[in-house]
Amino acid sequence: MGGGVGRTRRWAARLAITAVVAAVVLPLVAAGLRSLGLAAFGLAGLAVSAAGLWWALSHRGLVRGLALALAVAAQVAVIALFVAAGVLWVVVVVLALWASACFAGRAALGEDGGHAAPAEHRTPAPERPFVIMNPRSGGGKVGRFGLKEKAEVLGAQVVLLDPAHPQDVAALARDAVAKGADLLGVAGGDGTQALVAGVAAEHGIPFMVISAGTRNHFALDLGLDREDPSTCLDALTDGVELRIDLGRIGERTFVNNVSFGAYAEVVQSPAYRDDKINTILRMLPDVLTHHLGSRLTVHGAGTTITSPQAVLVSNNPYRSGDPTGLGRRDELDAGVLGVLGIKVDNAVQAAELLRGRRSSGLIAWTADEVVVDADADGAEVQVGVDGESLSFPTPVRCVSRPGALRVRVPRHRPGVARPPSRLDWRRLRDLALSRG
Questions:
Q1: pLDDT digits (tens, 9 = 90+) for 283-304
Q2: Which of 59, 234, 326, 391 is a Cys-bridge partner for 410, taking CB atoms 3.0 to 4.6 Å apart?
Q3: Quick check: bond before 395 cis, omega within 30?
Q4: Can you tell me whether residue 83 is helix, strand or coil?
Q5: Residue among 343, 319, 309, 339 nearest 399 (CA)
Q6: Calpha distance 410→231 (Å, rounded)
Q7: β-pairing, 310-315 with 362-367?
Q8: Angle at 195 between CA 272 and CA 250, to 5 degrees
């Protein structure tokens, strides 16, 4: 490492180490050994608040109100003690120092070079592209950006879905392939994207994503422009192909994830669409305490979770260790499923979740196949598949299909930012002490 970049990283590492040392020394200087007791009291307050929130979510009525009051009171007590001891300013400064240390440390270590972007393949432009568009998706992005007209100018055949008459988009796609379509595209939500992507993979033809949905998680992980979906149409004339994975649950394809447990049970309620908050608060106590829905068992790659409250199985694992990158996948071609399970049965385990990945109630791993079973033979479980509410007979089998999908994307696109490196304090120390 040399030159200006090397010097900048060395000084960033020195700033990070200095900030950490200051964050440790400042409380001792300002409050002496009593700072240790104050810190322990602050941590205890966080644990009590976490336990209170668990009781609030898992109970109704008076218990819920008392639990919320406890969670708030614990934090008020901590702040009051810090004020009385004259160290509230120390807490604020220490938090700022830790934030500065993390920021400087990540800048010093740079981006994580462990994840390579999928290889791009130059292929001929499609001659008979077929695109399905949902005019209601994303609040009407199809009409607002003139996607139908722009796609037709580029030679695509476009079918607009009729919201008043639901259509089988997979059947539309298969019919288009039978008539000679050599590319399938979708301007719509991720659930529709997944159904048509499955047909494209089945016939070995390219698939095009147009970011006209509400959240566009799939488009985000492909590095597409989510602000202007019309730029995705550049793939028709100046595009490259990527080979990426698909997930499969039973006979259905998913591009993002499938969820079991609490979320899937709640969104199945007819009342959820019209009154989300009250529906969640009403149903969560029964879901969290296993009085509603089946008790699940999850198997995969030698790991088993029994009776988790929630399980998320994703097409490649989601990013961890970077709060700014939650909900992002660094790879779409690793050939594995990401699995995240949450199992919390009491207030102590809820408080332990403050430990993050080190908590026994939060379990994450990868597998090429995951089987979810229920406590009753032949039971049906509720599943959220790319945001759509469905039910499946148990056991439910999820598998990864490595490299199953040819995705055609614009050659010039925003791309996917590499994640910042994990904070490695030993590396930072060595970098800070190096002379270049």
A1: 778 778 877 778 899 999 999 9
A2: 234
A3: yes
A4: helix
A5: 339
A6: 8
A7: unpaired
A8: 80
